[in-house]
């Protein structure tokens, strides 16, 4: 972290953040917090309520006008469901254009869910109109018991195992080599009904969790 953020004097604020007189947040940290928040369809007020951090501070962080303490960034990461490393740039890519276009296999950012799903981000960021994920489902892992809907479209390819997708009243069982596409505004859910791990390359537009 010390290599990614310029060193300037700061003091701890009451909400656990750090206050500074000049911009000190690395631009990738602020944008990654903002992009992940928006991908989860959350407002600054939602994050503020969930973390106990002030909306003003969160806004400054996203606009690169405040530097978060490790404590504050850990709270934000936990609330958004990611490891704190999600927000930091790779020092090797920081100065080049590659990080805006390419995601190396050993540098994917990942989201883990209690339900047994792990999403690895194949897109360089969540700022565009398309989100590409490598989703791993442990046996029995699912998106929840209730159907849910959101604007956009989803498509994917089952590279390993089985995937069951429910769209409104219809239930579809996909096997290795099968693919799918559907309108996300239709209530849906998905799960791995098999005894083996399932792996799916999943695309969403716009980005959504």
Automatic annotation (TrEMBL):
Where, if anywhere, are coiled coils annotated?
Answer: none
Pfam families for this protein = Cupin_2, HTH_3
Q: Which GO terms describe its molecular function?
A: DNA binding; DNA-binding transcription factor activity
- Which residue windows are transmembrane per the record? none
Keywords in alphabetical order, please.
DNA-binding
Residue span, HTH cro/C1-type domain: 33-87
A single GO CC term, please?
cytosol
Q: Which segments show compositional bias classed as Polar residues?
A: 1-25
Q: Is the Acyltransferase keyword given for this protein?
A: no
* Record region (Disordered): 1-27
Q: Which PANTHER family match?
A: HTH-TYPE TRANSCRIPTIONAL REGULATOR, TRANSCRIPTIONAL REGULATOR
Q: What name does UniProt use for this protein? A: Cupin domain-containing protein
> Species name for this entry?
Allomesorhizobium camelthorni
* Phylogenetic placement of the source organism: Bacteria, Pseudomonadati, Pseudomonadota, Alphaproteobacteria, Hyphomicrobiales
């Amino acid at each position: 972290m010390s290599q990614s953020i310029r060193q300037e004097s700061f003091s701890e604020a009451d909400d656990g953040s750090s206050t500074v007189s000049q911009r000190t947040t690395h631009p990738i940290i602020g944008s990654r917090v903002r992009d992940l928040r928006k991908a989860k369809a959350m407002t600054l007020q939602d994050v503020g309520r969930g973390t106990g951090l002030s909306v003003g501070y969160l806004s400054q962080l996203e606009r690169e006008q405040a530097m978060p303490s490790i404590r504050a960034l850990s709270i934000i990461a936990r609330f958004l469901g990611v490891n704190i490393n999600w927000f930091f740039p790779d020092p090797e890519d920081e100065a080049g254009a590659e990080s805006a276009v390419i995601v190396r296999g050993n540098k994917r950012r990942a989201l883990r869910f209690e339900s047994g799903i792990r999403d690895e981000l194949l897109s360089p960021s969540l700022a565009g109109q398309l989100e590409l994920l490598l989703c791993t489902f442990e046996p029995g892992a699912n998106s929840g018991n209730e159907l849910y809907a959101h604007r956009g479209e989803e498509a994917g390819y089952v590279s390993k195992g089985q995937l069951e997708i429910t769209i409104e009243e219809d239930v579809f069982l996909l096997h290795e080599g099968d693919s799918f596409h559907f309108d996300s505004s239709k209530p849906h859910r998905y799960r791995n009904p098999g005894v083996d791990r399932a792996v799916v390359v999943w695309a969403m537009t716009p980005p959504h969790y």
